[in-house]
Amino acid sequence: MLVTYLSPMLLGLEEPLCQELAERLRDGWNTRRPKDIYNITTYARLQEGFRNVILGIDITGWQKRREEES
Questions:
Q1: Nearest Cα to 4, choosing from 34, 35, 47, 36?
Q2: Which residues contact 29 (CB under 8 A, 6 or more apart)?
Q3: pTM of the predicted model as reported, rounded to 2 decimal places
Q4: pLDDT, tens digit, for every residue of 4-31?
Q5: Can you spell out the DSSP letters for 1-53?
Q6: Distance CA 4, CA 43 (A)
Q7: Which of 49, 39, 42 shows the shortest CA–CA distance to 9?
Q8: Of residues 24, 27, 29, 20, the one with CA closest to residue 1
């Protein structure tokens, strides 16, 4: 939950202390669980590691056309 939701959400907010909070959460987790460390990143960076596929059909082109029309 920290990696996929909370930390990226905090990085996406404009409040200046949100990034510091995300970093402190990460540091606290990594100190307590050195075998399960994680780094923080934005939603956009996380999404780069996934394909946009529904039932095996790549929908990346469809999404781009939809964004261009808007």
A1: 47
A2: 2, 36, 37, 38
A3: 0.64
A4: 788 888 888 888 899 999 999 999 999 9
A5: -IIIIIHHHHHHS--HHHHHHHHHHHHHHHHH-GGG------HHHHHTTS--E
A6: 8
A7: 42
A8: 29
